[in-house]
TrEMBL record:
Pfam families, per the entry: Peripla_BP_4
InterPro entries, per the entry: Peripla_BP_I, SBP_2_dom
Keyword vocabulary terms for this entry: Signal
Family the entry assigns: Belongs to the bacterial solute-binding protein 2 family.
Signal sequence range: 1-32
GO CC entries: cell envelope
Protein name: Sugar ABC transporter substrate-binding protein
Main location (coarse class): other
A GO molecular-function descriptor: carbohydrate binding
Keyword Signal applies: yes
Residue ranges of every copy of the Periplasmic binding protein domain listed in the record: 46-303
Localization of this protein: Cell envelope
Length: 346
């Protein structure tokens, strides 16, 4: 399991999808100031991630910065202004593309918003490590992008865990609703598809998009509950939206009557599970994903070859394990093997 001790860097560097290790970043910016840290060796790394207005990406940044400190790697991290800032994120990458970074860790807002900026990076022969949200494969092929590896969650499987759980909590045929992220988003679609497949015995009375935002989900859930007073459960494609649904249920004086399951495993969601708001969350490991992305750049800098994809695990967090998850946050609360360990130790 992860540890806060620097010695985990090489040994546990793989203990979690990407092991909360230290790799190479120390800076961050959420649309304001950017930070960077100089290391003693290895290639310079640039990381461009989604907006820090979402705690999921705050934890991802923590994984990157903690790893950077441990490994003393020179890294610059920049973040979009918010989770919908597609053009601003692309501008940040464009500004970094012509600089002397040897490896880029990319967490795109959409499947295509960073493709144009990445074409310059790829043409220059610099490594591209795609984390969390995948770059659209057709767009990448058209732009001749060479993606070194993709590191992220199997989103269909994550949605499937939520579907399996809700199916166990409510009777067959129960009315349920789905609240997804941005319409057309690959990640949201995969989670919803996985959920639908696992919850096929339930009656989906409405599916809507809430742009990954809590307040939008609150409004949507309020309307759904009013129109369907016998609604039994909600699935939300991320925790922020799940917490918006919880608030709508609270406002309707229905707390404890409607099952709500979301995906991410952010700390506020874990606390909500513990307190009886969210029924469960399918926890991803954003801290580990960030660390693994940095470690992948280390492998490239050392001349190693990365696998085309690296899957980071998920875990269903219910009230009985919420305390353990909170105590370990932002590190994973379940052990697993870091897939890059052997490559890092060569």
């Amino acid at each position: 399991m992860f540890s806060n001790d620097a010695t985990w860097s090489r040994t546990l560097r793989v203990a979690v999808p990407l092991g909360a290790l230290a790799l190479i970043l120390v800076g961050c910016s959420g649309g304001a100031a950017d930070t960077n840290a100089d290391g003693d060796g290895g290639t310079k790394v640039a990381a461009v991630i989604k907006g820090l207005d979402n705690p999921f990406f705050q934890a991802m940044e923590d994984g990157i910065t903690d790893t950077a400190k441990t490994d003393s790697v020179d890294v610059t991290v920049q973040a979009a202004a918010d989770v919908g800032d597609t053009s601003g994120q692309a501008d940040k990458l464009s500004a970094l593309a012509g600089q002397d970074f040897g490896c880029f860790v990319i967490n795109p807002i959409s499947g295509t918003n960073l493709v144009q900026a990445l074409s310059q990076v790829s043409t220059a022969g610099k490594a591209i490590v795609n984390i969390d949200s995948p770059i659209d494969p057709d767009a990448a092929a058209t732009a001749n992008l060479n993606i070194s590896t993709y590191i992220g969650t199997d989103n269909e499987a994550a949605g499937g865990k939520a579907g399996d759980f809700i199916s166990e909590q409510v009777p067959a045929g129960s009315k349920i609703a789905i609240i997804g992220g941005i319409a057309g988003d690959v990640t949201s679609a995969a989670r919803v598809d996985g959920f639908r497949a696992a919850a096929s015995g339930l009656d989906v009375v409405q599916e809507t998009a809430a742009d990954w935002k809590r307040e939008v989900a609150l409004t949507a859930a309020t309307d759904i509950i009013a129109a369907n007073p016998d609604i039994a459960a909600f699935f939300a494609a991320n925790d922020d939206m799940g917490l918006g649904i919880v608030k709508a249920i609270e406002n309707a004086n229905r707390t404890g009557e409607i099952v709500v399951v979301s995906v991410d495993g952010n700390k506020d969601a874990l606390e909500s599970v513990q307190d009886g708001g969210l029924t469960a969350t399918v926890a991803q490991y954003p801290y580990a994903i960030g660390a693994l992305g940095l470690q992948a750049c280390e492998v490239v800098a050392a001349g190693g070859t990365l696998p085309k994809s690296i899957e980071s695990p998920t875990a269903l967090v219910t009230a009985d394990v919420a305390v353990d998850a909170i105590d370990m946050f932002p590190q994973p609360f379940e052990e697993f093997e870091n897939p890059l360990t052997e490559l890092l130790n060569k």
